[in-house]
Records
---
Amino acid sequence: MNPEVRTLRAQDVAWLADLHNAAFADYPVPAVLDASSLGFYLTETDVDPALSRVAFVDGAPASFCLGALRGDRASIRGEGTAPGFRRSGLGRLVLEQTLEALAAAGARTVTLEVLNGNDAAVGLYRRSGFEQRRRLLGYRLARPGRGFRSRLSGGLAESDTDTAIDRLARWGWRDPPWQLETESLAHIPAQHLDGRAVLLGKRRGDHFWLYALAVDPERRRKGLATRALSLLPAAWVGVPALIPEEWWEAGALLRSLAAETEGHWQWEMRRSLASG
Ligand SMILES: CC(C)(COP(=O)(O)OP(=O)(O)OC[C@H]1O[C@@H](n2cnc3c(N)ncnc32)[C@H](O)[C@@H]1OP(=O)(O)O)[C@@H](O)C(=O)NCCC(=O)NCCS
């Protein structure tokens, strides 16, 4: 096999969706994207085609690795090899070339996420110098009842996302994983409760997918987060598997609301690209 590796190009998105879907077809969490949702994901997470690599075998797309850079921090936003081409070194090839491109563009650290149980990917990344840094957990809960904190009044109001993100950052949004960094959240609708609590997320069917929630530190432990959640327009609240296990206040709130931890969680893995 004589693979050809090249930089991703913007117009590749149409066939990249097919390669992505083939690579993730045997994945425990379904991940089927069309070209437009893949394009949205690439924009939202700052994937840079010039810092991403694709491998072709006899002209057929076989493996891809998506790189993103924010300042001197980089992330691998996805990687996959079509099942027929696995265990032939392509995953490592596109990864190493993407890491070289990221380092040349100024990256000093790289992070990525891997679903628990994905031993193939953990093996690939450990051999490339990544270490498992922390677990990222997901939750599901029934929307809390409104009578729960009846002494509180006021409703959720739409908020400008920039203002909400500014509040999140001021109120403490420490060391989030890439997909919860403020840059990633910039495309997600926001709401606020009396200017004292903000939340970002979107409704899909009977679930509200919650990406961020924060309460002004001076108004904590007064039921504001619970009230904000009780006002969401969906029977269920889903929290994607992106919440660092060490965010103990988030864990405490979710446990107090009888949230269930999702069976699928992710490893956040990290390596340094600094010389030496
Ligand atoms: C993970 C994945 C990208 C690896 O692609 P690949 O082209 O088969 O990887 P390589 O052939 O370059 O393997 C490099 C090393 O990774 C490890 N590895 C890869 N697949 C493995 C497997 N099934 N079991 C154990 N280790 C594995 C090995 O250390 C391997 O080196 P070796 O073959 O010399 O032992 C591929 O399995 C895949 O597309 N999986 C589905 C999508 C996915 O999980 N993406 C990563 C998370 S986003």
---
Amino acid sequence: MGSFVWHPYTQMKDWPKFDVISKGKGMWLYDIHGNAMMDGVASMWCNVWGHSNKELTDSMIKQTRKLQHSSLFNLTNNRAEELAEKLVKLAPGMHRVFYSDDGSTAMEISAKMALQYWHNIGEKKKTKFVSLENGYHGDTAGTMSLGYVPSFFSKFKPMLFPVLRMPSPNGYRLPKGYSFDEYQEFCLDKIEQTLAKNDNIAAFVMESGAQIAGGVVIYPKGFQKKIGKMCKKYNVYSY
Ligand SMILES: Cc1ncc(COP(=O)(O)O)c(C=O)c1O
């Protein structure tokens, strides 16, 4: 079937036709001919409870019959409060929840929070961001700036803001002459030097646990914690 949809990250010339999915159940997707396909990527990791999960669909139907949406500008609602309370209890050290629409917007909001924080406490020169090479944080202008994967984003460079980019320990692409441990140390040293010598850094941004879109590269054990400690030491917000 041809498509009127503009498909993301898809060279449409290479796809004269697409399989058409008509339903999903658990980990399976079914096309219009009834063929089952295992959804091994959980629809790009946004369907972690499986398709047509009964508990979720029942509660969505129940809630939409009662209240579909009410703004959080100077108002609140029971459901927003209940979920926020649950999330805060699951996340030690957190006190409030800011609701966002998707991953990219969440990252944009975090960047704005960092800038607003420093501004509000009078540290107005802390406006720069540091991130890791090959990180990915989304497809909006701010997140393409923070997580710059060259093959995805080079065409959009004119709309991006400058970010200090640090090397990240990718065991599959080690520079000549380095063992993995040595390269990890090199990356950490470089990050520490950057944080130590620049007093205008608002935040350090990295994916949690691994760089997925940038090649499924898992961070070495303790790497993220070490960066978190450096951020505390040099008074930099980290997320
Ligand atoms: C680490 C990370 N951050 C941000 C995003 C962007 O999320 P979204 O596609 O919901 O905007 C993704 C998406 O895959 C991601 O993997």
---
Amino acid sequence: MLHSTDPKILFLQEEDVIKAGALDMRMTLDAVEETYRMFGRGELLNPPKTHMEMPIGCNGDWASFFNTMPCYLGKDINIGGVKWAAEAKNNSNIPGIPYGIDITILSDPETVLPFCILDGTLITAMRTSAVAGVFAKYTAPKGCDSALLVGAGVIGRTMIMAICEALPGIKKIYLSDLDISKAEALKKEYEGVYDAEIIPVTDAKSASKETKLIVTETTSGKTFIDESWLKPGDTMINMGSYEADKGTVKSSDVIIVDYWDQVITSPTKAVSLLYKDGEITEDDVYNLSDVVLGKWQGRTDDSQIVNCSSLGLGALDIMIGYKVFLKAKEMGIGTEVKLWNKPLWE
Ligand SMILES: NC(=O)c1ccc[n+]([C@@H]2O[C@H](COP(=O)([O-])OP(=O)(O)OC[C@H]3O[C@@H](n4cnc5c(N)ncnc54)[C@H](O)[C@@H]3O)[C@@H](O)[C@H]2O)c1
């Protein structure tokens, strides 16, 4: 397929992506770790995403946004790709449409011809929670057997999978949401799937006292978590844009981000605000790639507080999208389309 001059594109809609294994959380966790190892070894290119908010002049108070997330995966993978990622606040009020919607293009880096266009929405949900799963695997205190998940939407659903797969010792998951019926629905959905009991809670702050692992994946447009939620030994992982305030990061002994150069472009993330206010520098922070490559020695004692933040890495979408493409080819599924029969100009 590489060096191909054939303009055939395999289109994979969500149903194809599912058949080709996109809901396999074990595969996703492994792919996320492998991608971060490649990132840390300089084996891939992943410039920070371009972020565009609408309507014009909204000044951060966006109704919707698009992100462009390009990447090149080197070594023997050798493919390029881009995820066109989007979120719309009002989608939460429109039945039948997710809050976040994503599409991924995979391209041959030699001839630059695209060879696959696939739904990236499910892969985004799976890989986002898998990033939290990898953070949790490396940073949760020894013997951690419970977690508090804040947010029971799409990412909340995949977060249950990621945390239970990454930390098989988890026996209880406290699950909160402004809309408690969503947490109750997920409790039913996951009944018997994992060993963990899912406990819907209305008071997330009280539940934070019962566990040492707090993961947030909400669409909150303001911070609602401060350092009074934290106690010695906690790991806090923030996947949304606001959620935890600067104090939660400042009071942590170890700060880890998924990708420093990108996270500091965020106008809202606590770790980015601390950097912009001159209260931390890059030297105070580990990248997740340092962690998976063993450059962070791990907790030196179980009373340390660890803070993890993520803004998302396009390379994950391309890596997992490529695995799904290969599986789909093997299974003979998807719809073939062509960019042209014969290019008009060459
Ligand atoms: N870091 C990444 O790579 C990445 C990737 C994709 C999505 N995300 C983020 O994940 C978040 C969740 O996305 P989603 O697709 O699951 O959205 P969703 O609309 O499906 O679910 C969000 C849930 O958060 C709940 N919520 C909002 N404010 C809350 C609060 N203060 N306390 C408790 N619950 C609250 C909502 O009721 C809803 O159930 C978004 O902020 C999105 O930007 C991050």
